[in-house]
Amino acid sequence: MADRPVTKLDKSDVLAGLFAVWDDITALLDGLPEAEWEAASPLPGWDVKALVAHIIGTESFLAGVHAPQPDIDVSTLEHVRNDIGAMNECWVRHLSGEPGAEVLNRFRDITDQRRKALTGMPDGEWDAVTLTPVGPESYGRFMRVRVFDCWMHEQDIRDALGRPASDDQLVGPASELSLDEIAATMGYVVGKRAKAPEGSRVLFELTGPLTRDIRVSVDGRAQLVDDFGGREPTVTIRVDGLQFTRLAGGRRMCTARSQSIDLGGDEGVAARIVDHLNFVI
Q1: Which homologous superfamily does the CATH classification assign to the domain defined by 188-275?
Q2: 11-163: CATH architecture
Q3: Which residue range or ranges hold the Mycothiol-dependent maleylpyruvate isomerase metal-binding domain (predicted)?
């Protein structure tokens, strides 16, 4: 079996997105009243503070900091489904009693550390293969996954606070990189999860500020393609770009944007793909 190709990404592009989303989260939380840190998020068992604690925990892990010892067996919690979830929960419980302002300070401190480390990282390390949430991949791809994770959690925080992103706030390097990361999984979603039949040509038409077309062709295996070679799609799924990211992340749709999903072509296959869009662990 051939080795999987390694994704090489421009370091400055990825870091621009990662640092931008950290800045946006900081701005969103700065001066937040204590009660709002406890607002329930779309993720089961987590409030706003838990979302921020999770990001702190992941960046701490990447900086070589061990997770704190939990006060209970976190693997028994209903919303913890794997080892990564258990590590997340150690940080969530550890920081749950801290005031929101202190949690924000911790977020600033660890992201400042990570900015310095990432900015100074040699290209050889950036391109080197490492273990990532999407399998053995370049460290740069891992950092694009980090952009996706942080950007998704920014939208979760906005959902919890009732402060959805404006069109202008949605556009930028972080959302573009997040869509790149989601698009990279659509072959798996269409082929493995939704089991679209051989010969399918699936077009995702994303509308709104996050407009883009994503094409997947099933030819032996399902994979992302730039075009269908002049042929028409057999399946079309037309949806607001932000709502597409919410569905791909297993979240509820944003109430501030259109929630309509228009299916074209083979509507049975289209509906099955929509039902299986959630790929996150």
Answers
A1: SCP2 sterol-binding domain (3.30.1050.10)
A2: Up-down Bundle (1.20)
A3: 20-158
